[in-house]
Amino acid sequence: MNRLRSLSLVWLSLAGSARAGAQSAPWDSVARILGTAPTVVAGYQRFGFPRRDLTVRVADVVIAPGLALGGWIGIDGAPDRAMVAGDLVVTAAELPAVVKSLTEDRVAITAIHNHLAGESPNILYVHVHQMGPAVTIAAAIDRALQRTATPRGPSTAPPAPVTIDTAVVFRRLGVAGRAQGAVASVSPVLVRGPIRMGRVAMTAALVAASPINIQRISADRAVATGDFALTAERVQPVLRALVEHGITPTSIHSHLVGESPTISYLHFWGDGSLELLLTGLRAALDAAR
To answer: pTM for the full model?
Structure first.
């Protein structure tokens, strides 16, 4: 009896491992296709494509990839019925080939626009949204990325030490986040209630997070950028809060087509002391809520 029980336990363990392997295999295939490993963010698979190859400046500031050059694709749902959203960071010269590739592969392009203002060289953000088999969509994204010089996979350089005071940033903003090198980031979801595309409910963190990124420049200077994802009635209160604290709105636009409720994305740029930036951003967060 004990031997039979032991054999049963071994069989169950092997069966469980086989099921886990079968479930992870499609995501492993997606990672191989995209050339980078995902991180799990708020329940969805996020694949990052930071433009480490570019040197982008706003005035005298060299933009860290994690501040405003982090192209990404998020995949939610089952591998055979996935929902994909995100944006690719491209130069003006790369844009035509990227758009052509995505269009030929029937990947919906939902926005093409700027997030920054006055950067050199000019950077554009191509937003996409698609539903279907994750492997098929990943192959299409891969073909589009091949039209750019976007590096894949982890950087070969050693990880940079964190030089921004994350305890102060997260405490003042009232949101926990992450940090890499000189950049600290938070991504609260400020849109209340469900978000739908037709009859399909979407994961709010996938399509309506509000990334706020802050880069330390020196002991008495930082810059901040990102966007607030907002429903209509919150746009003007947040805009006023930013302007009143010396932070410049750089764009107000859509990232999606056909979502309900309609979401506006308010991008911004701030340059000053960390204290002043955090005060302004916290005021905008409070206005958003």
So the answer is: 0.89
